[in-house]
Amino acid sequence: DQQVKQNSPSLSVQEGRISILNCDYTNSMFDYFLWYKKYPAEGPTFLISISSIKDKNEDGRFTVFLNKSAKHLSLHIVPSQPGDSAVYFCAAKISGTYKYIFGTGTRLKVLA
Amino acid sequence: EAQVTQNPRYLITVTGKKLTVTCSQNMNHEYMSWYRQDPGLGLRQIYYSMNVEVTDKGDVPEGYKVSRKEKRNFPLILESPSPNQTSLYFCASSQTAANEKLFFGSGTQLSVL
Predict the structure, then answer these.
(1) pLDDT tens profile A56-76
(2) Contact B100/A102, CB-based, under 8 Å?
(3) Cβ contact A100–B106 (<8 Å)
(4) What is the rounded distance in angstroms from the CA atom of residue B25 to the CA atom of residue A104?
(5) Which of B5, B24, B37, B100 to mutate to test the interface with A (most CBs of A within 10 A)?
(6) How many distinct structural domains can be found in chain A?
(7) Domain that holds residue A106
């Protein structure tokens, strides 16, 4: 059973607008959530993370929001740029372990 | 340059022929792990290692072996590959097991015929 779900396989956004990528989880035993970006033929690269004790973390154009009651995580990119076009994976670390569960990814396309 | 290096990038093999995918990192990281990426399933963790000689199973360890004899290297061994192990494999490392920021290699595309 997939514990971390990214229900939107793809998303297209106009350059300069906001991109919102969503992630839902079913397990309350996660203590850290992360977002990774992946370009074709490359490995994923770390983007931003948030501890389960926080509800928001910001780094430049990227903000991650955590809604624990809804078990929902989102990544906001403002403003979106064509170079942001990539596949985005959300991931969660199981508390007390060093195991990570990844979502299936959302392909973001930013249109110039 | 800080990096995680996997070899080979592409590998085609036949069922039952033992193979090893190498992974090396030059950042003196303690934690290393292996993932496989399959369509519709995201990345799934195979094995991880918290330090030299310390390894543990991830979510999908069946059919794989690992070893961590040196800090920089974490090879993935398929003793008897089968077609269901055809996948894109990624190695990753982080400074410590408690540090959540993983650095990934570029991937190894394996096809088992």
Answers:
(1) 999 999 999 999 999 999 999
(2) no
(3) no
(4) 26
(5) B100
(6) 1
(7) 4-111
